[in-house]
Each structure stands twice: as structure tokens, then as C-alpha cells.
Specification:
The complex is a heterodimer. By secondary structure, chain A is α+β, with helices and mostly antiparallel strands. Chain A has three helices and five strands. Helices cover 24% and strands 24% of the residues of chain A. In chain A, strands 2-1-5-3-4 form a five-stranded mixed sheet, with no helix packed on it. The chains are: A alpha+beta, B mainly beta. At the A-B interface, helix 3 of A face loops of B.
């Protein structure tokens, strides 16, 4: 499926749009990490929680559930909410 | 050794590497590295004088570490940065916010590094900083966990484990400091720890017998006498001579109008009686800026029995910056060179052991940490 990656993570992916696969959002993120090592830990902490300034949308709807089911027709977008100076 | 120096500058918005020749003048600036990233500590491996480790985060992404095998010309991210073990219960679920402190391991353990994190955690790498394992002897010890407190017990940007010291005579003899949470010693390579807080004072009205009230800011070990430790604490300046266990408040000998509050402390590479501090204002609401807007280092040449002000060349008025605990360091030359980085992004150096100071750079981001190394 299509995954849109925020610009602070382009140092890993080299581009805005990448492809990943998985039956759940968690599996998609692991697949991204397999392709782009280190990417997942910047978004997800060691307790499998989405980091505070990271937001994930599936087909435009925000989700906090990494066990959410997804399929190849879905679109995932990761947002990094910038704040502070 | 060529006599060349590199000054490693870690800031809130990136890292810079300053190069100088044998005369420690004409500093050449290399950077920025990691522009926009928070660089908490940038350290050269003294065992090969080539490898750099940088602890970074961005404020929005998770923390990580980078390693350079060529003095910063190229960087590779650690494949497994410091991270706590997966917790069984949600209430126990700690996540590393950032790596605050890096210490190379013992000279006879050339691939070993230690990292201290926020929240409190001690981690070890056995492969030159590529992968990191939690040190369970500290991170999971129930007593130490209690002394660590929670997020509200640390510094404004989180509790920090710092001042990881390795005894040059014994790789298994370690010290760490926790803000807050006291000073601790291990004799078995970090498997078990004992507090070392006797004689240290805490904020008035609290019980100094409770480990969690202790807030060491910076602990240093004298390379020329490894049984001597100095400490800048939230509540004063101290010295400890092992095997003794009782810290002596040598900051009582500072001028009363200056006091003994501050963050960094530097020890002399060859003279265990000489050390430097950079006092900060600890009055009223604790501004923690240069006292009276007139920055000065203070040096002792008698183990803290007396202190001498050193401010020649530093601003004489209206300089209200802070020097953080990692932002003052000294080289091993004779005479010793001293280096200070400020929260206002200025770099100051002295090539005469603090007798006079010269500016190296201005307009950098807020400086978090400095390390000086000879090549």
C-alpha cells in the first residue's frame, strides 16, 4: 500500500511516497523498518506507543491503534506535528 | 599525537567541530552537522582518536545515535539505539526520550561505550556504539527505580543519568550520577550499585538520608589520582577521597557573595588538587545565570581549600548566560586549555589555565555540551 512519509524522515526513505505491506498497521511499520532501517524507532517507542508528535492516518482518518487492519488498497499517511521553536 | 585539537560542540540545533593547531588558536569551523537536530553530546573515542559518537533527537522524532569513523566526514546511524526493555505492565513502560551522556569504555575495552539517558537509564555498547543493551543491574533494580523518581523529579527537560565514570585502573569500577537520584558506585561492571551520598546536602527542609533528594550536576574523577572525585551538586561543590565515603563541601570556601551553585566542573589532567567551576546565581528563584551578569570561572589549587576568580577577557557586565553541566571542558596540554560554551551560543577558551579568556565563536545555537580532544 501507499505510505506518505513526513519530510523529517526523508533521510531514511529518500522520497515522500513509499510502498509497504502488512495486514495491520503495526506490520506495515515493521515492513517500512525492514526497507528503511531505523525508521520505525523514530515514530514508535520501545513500548510500541506512537511517539507524542507523530500522528498516523489511514485513508484520511487518524488512528492510534497499531493493530488496526489494513489492506493493499489503503493509504497510510504519517504526520510529524511540528511545535516549539 | 600531532598536537592538533578538535573542539566538539553539541547544541540544541546541531553540532559543530572546531579544529585548531598546536597553538590552540585560529580555530577552523566545520559544520553544521545534523542541522536542526538536538545534539545532546558529541564525543571522540580517545582509544582511536578518529571515531565520533553523537547522541541526537529532534524534539519530534524518537532519539538515536550516530557514529562517524572519520572525524565527522561521514555518519552512520546506530542500528539499535538505547531503548528500555519492553515492559509487562503499562505503568512500568519507560521509553528513552534522549541519550544525554556518552562515555567511552576502559582503554582495555576498545569497543565498549556507555550511555546515560533521560529518563534515567544506563546502556552499554560492546560494538563501538552500533547496538546498545540496557544495564539491568541499574535500570531494573527496585531500590534504584524508586530513587529515580518520576518525570516530575528531574531537570525541566527530564531526569538525566550522567557523569558515567570508568576507573582507569579497573574497567569494572564505575560511577554514575542521577539528577535527581544521587551518586552511585559499582564494583562489578554495573551488575550491582551502591549509593555514595554521605556528606552531600539537599534542599533545606528535606532529609539528606533519602537518596532521591540528591541532585549531582556533574561528577569528575581525577585522572592523576583516580581515588579523588569532585562534584558540582545542586547544593554545593564537593570532594571525595576514596576509599572514604563522605563528601566534603569544599564549596563552603568559595566567596560568600558568589556561593557554590553551578553545573560544570573540570579537573586538572595532572594535578589532583586543581579543579575549575563556573558558578551560577542560586539566589531567590535560582536564575542560574552568571552572577551579577559578570561571568567568571573559579579555580582551586589546594583541593577546594581556597578559590581564585578567573574572569580576565570575559564580559565585565550584562552577560546573563548559563554554562550547562557538559559545556565546560579542559584539554591535557601544559598549560591546560579550558573551554566554555554558553546558552547564548558563545564559545570561550583559555590557553593559560583560566588566567585569561578569548572568544572563539558567537551566534551558535544554545550550547549543550563541549568536548576537547587531541589528535
Amino acid at each position: 500500500m501507499k505510505v506518505i512519509v513526513p519530510s523529517p524522515l526523508h533521510s531514511y526513505t529518500g522520497r515522500r511516497e513509499v510502498s509497504a505491506s502488512g495486514a495491520t498497521l503495526a506490520q506495515v511499520l515493521w515492513d517500512l523498518d525492514r526497507q528503511f532501517p531505523g525508521l520505525r524507532f523514530r515514530m514508535i517507542d520501545e513500548q510500541d506507543r506512537i511517539r507524542p508528535h507523530i500522528r498516523i492516518f489511514v485513508n484520511g482518518d487518524q488512528t492510534f491503534a497499531l493493530d488496526q487492519s489494513v489492506d493493499a488498497r489503503d493509504s497510510v499517511q504519517v504526520i510529524q506535528a511540528l511545535s516549539g521553536g | 599525537m600531532t598536537g592538533r585539537k578538535i573542539l566538539l560542540v553539541a547544541t540544541r540545533k546541531g553540532a559543530w567541530i572546531f579544529h585548531a593547531g598546536r597553538n590552540r588558536g585560529d580555530w577552523r569551523c566545520d559544520g553544521p552537522h545534523f542541522l536542526g537536530q538536538i545534539v545532546h553530546h558529541l564525543v571522540l573515542d580517545p582509544r582511536d582518536a578518529t571515531t565520533l559518537l553523537a547522541a541526537t533527537s529532534t524534539g519530534h522524532l524518537g532519539p538515536t545515535l550516530f557514529r562517524s569513523p572519520d572525524l565527522g566526514r561521514s555518519w552512520t546511524e546506530s542500528s539499535r539505539p538505547p531503548a528500555f526493555r519492553k515492559a509487562d505492565a503499562a505503568t512500568d513502560a519507560r521509553a528513552v526520550n534522549h541519550t544525554f551522556w556518552l562515555t567511552p569504555g576502559h582503554a582495555r575495552e576498545p569497543r565498549v561505550w556507555y550511555a546515560g539517558t533521560s529518563p534515567h537509564g544506563l546502556f552499554r555498547s560492546d560494538d563501538g556504539g552500533d547496538t546498545w543493551e540496557p544495564c539491568d543491574g541499574l535500570n531494573e533494580d527496585p531500590s534504584i527505580r524508586e530513587w529515580m523518581g518520576g518525570p516530575q523529579d528531574g531537570t525541566p527537560d527530564g531526569p538525566k543519568l550522567h557523569s558515567i565514570l570508568v576507573d582507569p585502573r579497573d574497567a569494572k569500577h564505575l560511577y554514575v550520577g542521577m539528577s535527581s537520584g544521587g551518586v552511585h558506585e559499582s564494583l562489578d561492571g554495573g551488575r550491582s550499585w551502591a549509593p555514595l551520598i554521605d556528606g552531600l546536602e539537599v534542599v533545606e527542609g528535606f532529609d539528606a538520608g533519602k537518596v532521591w533528594f540528591h541532585d549531582p550536576h556533574c561528577v569528575r574523577l581525577c585522572p592523576s589520582r583516580p581515588d579523588r572525585l569532585y562534584q558540582q551538586n545542586h547544593c554545593g561543590i564537593y570532594r571525595l577521597d576514596r576509599p572514604g565515603r563522605r563528601w566534603q563541601r569544599i564549596g563552603r570556601n568559595m566567596p560568600s557573595e558568589i556561593g557554590d551553585i553551578g553545573f560544570p566542573l573540570v579537573v586538572h589532567p595532572r594535578d589532583p588538587d586543581t579543579a575549575w567551576v563556573f558558578p551560577m546565581d542560586g539566589s531567590s528563584v535560582w536564575p542560574r545565570v552568571a552572577i551579577g551578569g559578570r561571568p567568571a570561572a573559579y579555580v582551586t589549587h589546594d583541593g577546594g581549600g581556597s578559590w581564585i576568580r578567573q574572569d580576565r577577557g570575559l564580559p565585565s557586565s550584562q552577560a546573563w548566560w548559563t554554562v550547562k553541566r557538559q559545556a565546560m571542558t579542559g584539554d591535557a596540554d601544559d598549560p591546560v586549555g579550558l573551554y566554555v560554551g554558553t546558552t547564548s551560543g558563545e564559545l570561550w577558551a583559555s590557553v593559560d589555565e583560566g588566567a585569561s579568556w578569548q572568544g572563539i565563536a558567537r551566534h551558535l545555537p544554545e550550547i549543550y555540551a563541549l568536548e576537547i580532544a587531541g589528535l
